[in-house]
Design goal:
The protein is an alpha/beta fold. Helix content is 29%, strand content 27%. The chain is built from 6 helices and 11 strands. Strands 2-1-3-4-5-11 form a 6-stranded parallel β-sheet, with helices on both faces. The chain has a 5-stranded mixed β-sheet with strand order 7-8-6-9-10. Strand 9 and strand 10 form a beta hairpin. Helix 4 packs parallel to helix 5. The longest helix is centred in the N-terminal third of the chain and has 13 residues. The chain is globular, with a radius of gyration of 18 Å.
Amino acid sequence: MTTHVALAGARGKMGRLFDAILAEMDDVEVVARLGRDSSLSEMDGADLVVDVTHPDASQRIVEHATRTGAHVLIGTSGWSESRITSLRSSLSDGAGVLIIPNFSLGSVLGTTFAALAATFYSSIEIIESHRATKADSPSGTAVRTAELMAAAREGLGPVEAPHTEQRARGQEVAGIPVHSLRRHGVVARQEVLLGGAGETLSIVHDTIDSSAYERGIRLSIDAARNVTGVVVGLENVIDLGLTSS
């Protein structure tokens, strides 16, 4: 059975990558390619809407898509925990939204390792770097990492993060300082730094090329067609043997 897909953000870098991958899938047909000036009604009738747009536009696109009965795959940053909670409460029965902060398998492994390590260390910070043209900060991956580490530490008390009232100390996400760098020559890099008595641990992931996203994109497209409710994270699409959905 063919899945009819509407691709929102088709002209962007990730949109073009999605478009190329969708074209290679035998059971998928792209029926609409939406750009900045497109009407939301162009996605009506699609079975699956892929949103790889801009944080300012994403929520409106997702709300329209779910109202029309389409499943949704979100690859746009900016979906905070509060926005996700609101989306969960507004979904009708049978609706499905899959939110993927990062399509790289290495990235999701790094985030999973960080959540495991967070229970052993009370000093934690995140440094993330992206290309100079990235519109939002902190990145969706950094937000997701911080939230998962905080959840893993529930009952252990807050992270030790002194002087966070100073601007140079970064933005606190779930109580963890996050520092965002935007510079040329970088695709994506995240470093989670943890410290304890007499030792430090760094968990680093570097995206060298956008080809790193291809496997995760294919897995996410397949999963999004049948997802129910709101599911967040590539770790809930693949079996890592470490986390549960």
